[in-house]
Write a structure and sequence with these properties.
The chain has four helices and five strands; from the N terminus they run ααααβββββ. Helix content is 49%, strand content 24%. It is rod-shaped and about 85 Å long. It has a five-stranded mixed β-barrel. Helix 1 packs antiparallel against helix 2. By secondary structure, the chain is an alpha+beta fold. The longest helix has 29 residues.
């Protein structure tokens, strides 16, 4: 029993789709599309040279066109800080006197324990402070 060339190309496309799913590398998907295009050429009666040529041309064209577009799209995305990284640099209001040994602030609607970055500095209730960093559950302010 002889298997037609187009079936081999489809098996190759599936084989290229597996690493696409496992590694999330879009290049494998582009090669899989090239293999499907070669399967179409084989099903239409094209010779092996035409099949390989279509596979190479489609794969290379997709890599050459899609990768730069994806890179531009990825570069245009801004990084959104989450968790404690989102709190760094924000302003807070002092609730209880904050000095080098401790105090309380209201930060992002929540009450946080706080201490000053400079141990000689202190802030009184009602003052606005900037969060320099988060050390465990304590905001370090200045």
């Amino acid at each position: 029993m002889e298997i037609d060339a187009w079936v081999w190309w489809l098996i190759g496309a599936v084989g290229l789709g597996i690493p696409l799913v496992l590694t999330a590398m879009p290049e494998f998907g582009m090669f899989a599309v090239g293999a499907v295009a070669a399967a179409v050429v084989a099903a239409l009666g094209g010779g092996i040279v035409a099949q390989v040529l279509v596979f190479v041309l489609i794969s290379v064209a997709l890599v050459a066109v899609v990768r730069p577009i994806a890179a531009r799209h990825r570069a245009g995305q801004t990084h959104h800080a989450t968790g404690i990284d989102a709190l760094k640099g924000r302003q807070a209001v002092v609730l209880e006197r904050v000095d080098g040994s401790g105090g309380r602030i209201k930060l992002a609607g929540e009450v946080w324990s706080a201490r000053t970055l400079d141990s000689d500095q202190s802030f009184e209730p009602g003052q606005t402070v900037d969060v320099a960093e988060i050390d465990g559950a304590t905001a370090v302010v200045m």
